[in-house]
Amino acid sequence: MSEVPHTDVSRPSALPTANLLQRPTISQSLVEQNSAEYLDAVEEEWNKKVDMEVETLVDGMVDLVSLASIGDKDKFRIAQEAFQAQSRAESMVRATNSLLSITHSMKLLLLLSDEAQIAHRRDAELGVVRTERDEARQKVAALLDDLLRSSAPSTRQQGQHADNK
Questions:
Q1: Where are the domains of the chain?
Q2: Core-most of 30, 92, 113, 152, by most CB within 10 Å?
Q3: pTM higher than 0.70
Q4: What is residue 46's predicted lDDT score, i.e. its pLDDT?
Q5: pLDDT exceeding 70 applies to what percent of the chain?
Q6: Lowest mean pLDDT across 25-34, 64-73, 118-127
């Protein structure tokens, strides 16, 4: 009987009587997923959130740089650009706060996550490194044996020449 890996990730679900924001197709697909698929979907969702906030910051910086043009401007144009810069800066602050919140949540997920998976990966990597080390030792021993065998006949021949003299 093969065991399905379990995680400590909570799977929020609606009560059977709840009808607010009930999406039957999504909740059914979450229940049918195994742990790896569920975690991949959560990771993809986090990546989308981060990408969206970073894109907001980049667009904001581009807009602020374009608003910072120097030239002859009347008071109306200056006021309009100041308002645009202020509203863009506010959206950038919201995006930055959102990124900070995402970072905090990801840190908590890492700290509170199941360490068995991390330990399993570490042990697997340690096994691979030990296997590679043993193979390298065997190669070095074989090369050293070959080197000693090839130098041994020449030493014997030198010893025989010394005995003949």
A1: 36-148
A2: 92
A3: no
A4: 87
A5: 72
A6: 25-34
